[in-house]
Amino acid sequence: MVSDPENIRLVVLDMAGTTVADGGLVERAFAAAARRLGAEPDAMLDYVRATMGESKISVFRHLFGEETKAQEANKAFEEAYAELVDGGLVAPIPGAREAIEQLRSQGRTVVLTTGFARTTQDAILAALGWQDLVPLTLCPADAGGRGRPYPDMVLGAFLRTAAADDVRQIAVVGDTSYDMLSGVRAGAGMVAGVLTGAHDENALRTSGATHVLGSVAELPGVLA
């Protein structure tokens, strides 16, 4: 646990479920993708829920096995999710933008990360008007392609921003077990779970959360 939260210089925030309200869009897009491939989505949804936060292509590789089919499923998922975003069905978590702006006003660098592909991440940012909200956004492909629960995106943010001198000056914040694992594996000084997304407090703490917050809106106060 962080002995002095004021030492946090870099804040790595997840998007869907943490700063962006999901509202079941991931499951809806997955169901559409599964049907497009002739699969029955209900039989797969438990795995999809359990692996929320993981790189989506990794999820499809597990479910479909064959790489060609996994890539096809991933493409169908991204297209379905983009249609939902275009339909105005994406919104920020209440207080998320204000929290990000407050963190930056405190002198901290904020990076937004996702398990989605770059095209989907950019569509979400555009829909919210967040293109210039933070200096860096990362998707799995920007950090070697493995995504969560690997520490790659967190360490990528650490290296690219040069905002912190030590990984213990990083806070990783997300709504899933995979977010927590990525923060722990990166050596982050704070690994905070939020209760606005996929996983409950027990799952977050079991995966290494040092803090559990009601929402990201509480984060600036915790760090102040």
Describe the secondary-structure layout.
Layout: E1 10-14, E2 20-21, H1 25-36, H2 45-50, H3 56-64, H4 67-86, E3 91-92, H5 96-105, E4 109-113, H6 118-128, E5 136-138, H7 152-161, E6 170-174, H8 177-186, E7 190-194, H9 201-206, E8 211-213, H10 219-223
Parallel strand pairs: 1-4, 1-6, 4-5, 6-7, 7-8
Antiparallel strand pairs: 2-3
Helix pairs in contact: 1-4, 3-4, 4-6
What this model shows, in words?
- The chain is of the alpha/beta class and 224 residues long.
- Helix 1 packs across helix 4 (67-86), helix 3 (56-64) packs across helix 4 (67-86) and helix 4 (67-86) packs parallel to helix 6.
- 44% of the residues lie in helices and 13% in strands.
- The chain has 2 domains: 5-22 and 90-223, 3-Layer(aba) Sandwich (Rossmann fold), CATH 3.40.50; 25-86.
- The chain is built from 10 helices and 8 strands.
- One of its GO terms (biological process) is DNA repair.
Give the strand tally.
8
What is the first-to-last residue Cα distance? 16 Å
Quaternary form: single chain
CATH fold annotation of the largest domain: Rossmann fold
Radius of gyration, Cα only, in angstroms?
Answer: 16 Å
Main beta-sheet strand count, sense and barrel state: 6 strands, parallel
CATH class identity of the largest domain: Alpha Beta
Strand content: 5-15%
Mean pLDDT: 90
List SSEs in N-to-C order: EEHHHHEHEHEHEHEHEH
Biggest sheet, spatial arrangement of strands:
5-4-1-6-7-8
The share of residues in helices is: 40-55%
CATH architecture of the largest domain, by name, is: 3-Layer(aba) Sandwich
Q: Low-confidence spans: pLDDT under 50, at least 5 residues? A: none
Compute the number of structural domains: 2
CATH superfamily of the largest domain: HAD superfamily/HAD-like
Rough outline: globular
Keywords: Hydrolase
Protein name: Phosphonatase-like hydrolase
GO molecular function: phosphoglycolate phosphatase activity
InterPro entries: HAD-like_hydrolase_sf, HAD-like_sf, HAD_sf, PGP-like_dom2, PhnX-like
